[in-house]
UniProtKB/TrEMBL annotation:
NCBIfam families: thiol_BshB1 (TIGR04001). GO terms for molecular function: deacetylase activity; hydrolase activity, acting on carbon-nitrogen (but not peptide) bonds, in linear amides. Its cofactor is Zn(2+). It comes from Marinococcus halophilus. One of its GO terms (biological process) is bacillithiol biosynthetic process. This is Bacillithiol biosynthesis deacetylase BshB1. Transmembrane segments: none annotated.
Amino acid sequence: MTHKRTLLTVGAHPDDIEIGMGGTVAQHSKTDNVYMLSLTEGDLSSNGTVETRQQEAERAAEILGAQRLQLTWRDRMLTAVTQEEYTQLVQLIRRIQPDTIFAPYYIDRHPDHGDAGNIVKRALFDAGVKLYPGVDENAHKVPDMYYYMINGYHRPTFYVDITTAAGDKEAALRAYKSQFNLGEEATSTPLTDGYLETIQARDRLFGKETGVTYAEGFIAETPMLFQQVPGKQGSD
């Protein structure tokens, strides 16, 4: 019987995960337990209220087939997270016991994204410290952590073919109407200026690099070990 894995994906704001790895979430949700955790509610966003964004995030997670989790850390204050708030993340990792954690790549134009990646890396370590104070759950060492990209392009360590899930990813992103649609009363931001097309273009580029239609790229900080030489499925 195939082992059903548990994946914990983390974003600084609602929509981060969908942008960087929505297709991968959609694919793994069919066979694995996938959680989508937002550290903040995105309360300082130029468009949309917290309530609206929460509704959009719930709809996006439903489309992708994932279980959604929400912390209420302060937007743009991830460098000032309290010990109590930080312990919430450590406790959550221990409770879920993920096999793999995904976080935003730390090189990004938005400071919160990089800060989130660094915080998750630290929390992953502390989740495995048996005597870490203030946490009830048993220690859990997460085997793997990878970074996904939100803004920009970086050379991936590996790619995931999302060709069959590209439609689900687009639908999940379009659930965030308050963020990506420039309505009459909306404020112009990078997200309303062809952002979805830019994300799709990056997925197409990654797909082109790997011989598929759409792909998402991920970055690993540690060497990746295989039991056998990897190869493309279906290759002659």
